[in-house]
Amino acid sequence: MVATRITPSNEVQILLRANQSASWRLNLWVWALLSALGSLIALGFSLLGAPLVFPFVGVEVLVLMGAFYCACRDCARQQLIRLGPSRLVVEKGHALREEVTGLPRQWARLRVEPGAHPLGTDRLFLCAFDQRTPVGEFLCQQELEQLRERLRQQGVRVEVLPLRPG
């Protein structure tokens, strides 16, 4: 998702969020249902004389919970690009700001590296001097084009690199 807003101090903010198909609460419900189903199956095997199934179901439930947590955390990534009169600031994180990169606005440019594969997505970098920070790594191609256009509208120079053969 790419959303733009203008603050009362006339600062443009572009919020980037990963596509999140299911909330954490929904994932917990799915995990609980799968855990209950696994426990019922283990109970059935236990009644048939195979009680050693329970530890394996427990491990399966824990691994499944870890996978759900990692997937949800990955989908909760977001970036905020703040365009002030003299600075361009990129804030990255999940629920809180974890990384901040500041660039001088007049020297900032958006570098577009085309995807290596025809179905791949472009890679975008905000650059100034020797600093380079990737933006929108989790966006689809259509959202990357929206971001590119919004940054261009705000006066950020766009530099598209040629496609490398091979």
From TrEMBL:
Record-linked Pfam families: DUF2244
**Annotated keywords:** Membrane, Transmembrane, Transmembrane helix
Residue spans crossing the bilayer: 26-47, 53-72
Superkingdom of the source species:
Bacteria
**What name goes with this protein?**
DUF2244 domain-containing protein
- From what organism does this protein derive? Aestuariirhabdus litorea
Lineage at the top is:
Bacteria, Pseudomonadati, Pseudomonadota, Gammaproteobacteria, Oceanospirillales
